Each structure stands twice: as C-alpha cells, then as structure tokens.
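Shift notes (night). Ran Chemotaxis protein methyltransferase while the centrifuge was going.
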Amino acid sequence: MHPLSDHDFHRFQRFIHNAAGISLSPTKKSLVSGRLAKRLAARDMGSFHDYLALLEQREEHAEAQIAVDLLTTNETYFFREPKHFELLRKVAQAAPAHSPLRIWSAASSTGEEAYSMAMVLADVRGERPFEVVGTDISTRVLARARQGHYPMERIRQMPADYLRRFCLKGTGAQEGTLLIQRALREKVKFLHVNLNERLPNLGGFDMVFLRNVLIYFNAETKRQVVHRVLETLPQGGWFCIGHSENLNDLDAPVVQIAPSIYRKV
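Came back to this:
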C-alpha cells in the first residue's frame, strides 16, 4: 500500500469538512492513514488516491458513511465531566412532576453520555416522565449505543449505586463487560443526525449537552452548529459544552452561568 501523500491528505480534509463540518488539523495525517487503511484492504485498493476516487462516486453513499464513521469516532466513558451531571440532577429535581423532561446528548458517540443522563433522571424522576435523545453522525457508534454493551473500564466515574441499579455485569464469555438494563435503554432514543446540516424535527429540549465536538469545527461552522442546536431550547433552557471549549465571538443567545454551562436568553 502506498503511503498517504500530503496532497491526498488535503483531499481527505476537504471530504470530512464537506461531510461533517470537521476541520482536521495537519497533525491528524497519521490518524487518517491508520483508520482508513483497513478500508483500502477491504476494497482491495493499493492507494489512498484510488480510495478517494471511490468516495467521490455518487453511488458510493455507504462507503462514504463508513469513512465518516472511521474519521469521527472518539472514545468516551460514563459520567465524563461530572459537574454537568450534578447540574442535570438539580434541573430534574426542580422540573414540574407532570411534564416530561427531555434531554439531548447532541454528540452521543457510543452512548455513555446519554445513558449517564438517563441514570440521573431515573434516579431523580422515578416514574415521572422523561426522555433522553442521543444523536451522532456515525451510524456505527449509534448501533453500538443502542446495544448498551460496554467494557467495564468505561465505568470508572459511575456511582457504585448506579452500577448496581441500572447495569448487568457480564459473566462467562461476557466477563469484563456490562449491559445497560432494558428498562433504562428504552428511555433513550438514538438517531442519526449531522449537526452540520439542517436538523430534523427533534422537538424541544430542556437541556442539551454539546460536549467535546466544537473543538473539531472552524469558527463559522461552530457558530452555525451552536445556533442550530440552541433553537431546540426554550428561554431559560440549559446548554453545556466541553470544559476545553468556549462560545467566544459566536454571538450566541446565551448567558454563561459557570465554566462550560450556559442558559438560553
């Protein structure tokens, strides 16, 4: 297999920006090469140049989706950045008992964030109605999220009580893994959504987590995505981003409450 040339890497940068709005830095050349090498082998191709030509064919939607999946997937874990889940608990406690509480995990990856949300809501709300929606551009990670089956190393920040109440520990061939209990899985809906395009009708939400994805967008794409997502929130709705991210210079209709935590105005 021929190595990935700078010219073809630039073409992959354009491909993923056009498909997902993601700006790949020059330091990601080895990541692109490593993640896509298996697709070259699967399609019996000897060069990235030939693979790019394949992706540019209109009828190759399935292969383009596979490439997007491989280039956008990031590993996550349960209860990452726990202050946001402490806020979610307070929001859930203050919400009216009779009205459904709807929370959006807008870049849900393999589902750990969405299920973490659901655990908090199930704990606080009990039988009172709630729904969690998880969305991602990668169909591959959404399939894994719907299964709710994870390696145990992902639970390092999960409260022990939640592990006991909401998860089943694997035994035998499944030892070292856990399965989210069916009753909780049924409270979470996973959908394929590209944040860089007009959103489907997702309904309104009381709170949105859009965490650790804005860092992959350039300034204009970031502005468009944030404004698009904020349209799903009412005035006073809560909006959380990653601790390494900010909304500076985006002219977003929010007020900052704490680092990485905002309310829509």
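The mean pLDDT is 92. Strands lie at 101-105, 130-136, 149-151, 167-169, 177-180, 188-192, 207-210, 238-241, 254-258, 261-264.
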